[in-house]
Amino acid sequence: MAIEIESLAKRYGRFEALAGVSLSVKSGGVFGLLGPNGAGKSTLVKSLLTLVRPSRCQGTLLGRPIGHRATLAKVGYLPEHARFPDYLTGRQIVRMSAGLSQMARKLALAREEMLLERVGMATRADDVYRHYSKGMRQRIGIAQALIHDPQLVFLDEPTDGVDPQGRVEIRRMIEEMKAEGRTVFVNSHLLDEVEQVADEVAILCGGRMVERGRTADLTRREVSFVVRSQGPLPFELKAAFEKEGWLVGADSIEVRGEAAEVVQPVIDALRARNVSIREIRESRRSLEQVFLEAVNRKEEA
After folding, report:
1. Are the beta carbons of 201 and 47 closer than 8 angstroms?
2. Predicted local distance difference test score (pLDDT) of residue 188
3. Is pLDDT above 70 for 299?
4. 5 pairs with which residues across the strands?
5. Alpha helices in 159-225 (DSSP H)
6. Within its chain, how far is the Cα of 105 from the centroid?
7. Which H/E stretch holds residue 207?
């Protein structure tokens, strides 16, 4: 396991930011931590990195106790709202991170050039940081997080405030990190972004873990198939379909079930009446629906 924690708690006076969170993250995949603003996501990450001292924490990071200094050197981190000296160039920021990691100069320079090219900043690397757009700043932030070749990378809201093209590029970088065998921990409230890259997700709300599992499993719980006809359905067919308990619209039939075979009777009935089929598609819950249901359950409880 890349991360394994039990009962991580953090209090700020009377305020309970994290209420005994337990979490395990497998090595070599992309893990997404979701939650509304103020849920405790950043506090959890900062506690794992010992940037915040937890009130209570038992667990391991890359197989060693939380806070083990040599292990932290194998971790890369892009914080939310990262603040780098704005008078430095992008190249100098990456080089500064290499120096803080005590990398050998020759190796650091080689990785610097490779990473600047990889994040699409090679031609702008010598521009001053204050002149960068939000997307450019995030790219430099990712490069500095990877400069020391970490095994585990924490990305806190990596696509927040980034334009659509920049988001696509950042997703590509995350997929490349996974392909290299790194564990990537993405902390975000942008559900569609996480759904596209994460193998597993957990949902944090009010400092408590309210849902977790493989992304595919969470969205597969309510699978259905939708068939659309070319034009309105004949009245007799609509009545027959409704009798089967299917959800019927003016030109659509929705049948619940994970296997495509469940929709075959609909197709057969439409063909028997010479009704043209315009579309057949699988429909499943989005991660957004999973998220809203989990948060609503927490609020009701």
Report:
1. no
2. 86
3. no
4. 23, 59
5. 164-179, 191-197, 215-219
6. 34
7. none
Say which residue, 224 or 242, is predicted with more confidence. Answer: 242
Are 7 and 176 contacting, i.e. CB atoms less than 8 angstroms apart? no
| 3-218 and 222-284 have identical folds | no
Average pLDDT for the chain? 91
Judge whether 248 and 242 are in contact, CB under 8 Å. Answer: yes
* Residues, the chain: 301
Strand partners, 211: 203
Report the b/e string of 229-247 with b at 16+ CB within 10 A. beeebeeebbebbeeeebe
CATH number of 3-218: 3.40.50.300
Tell the residue number behind the tokens 């019927």, with chain if given: 248
Q: Tokens 């305020």 — which residue?
A: 15
Residues 189-211, mean pLDDT to the nearest whole number: 88
What the block records as the tokens of 194 is 């996480």
CB half-sphere exposure, 207, CA atoms < 13 A = 15
| Longest CA span, the chain | 78
Q: What average pLDDT score do residues 141-160 get?
A: 94
Q: What is the mean pLDDT of residues 45-49?
A: 94
Q: Which fold has domain 222-284?
A: Alpha-Beta Plaits (3.30.70)
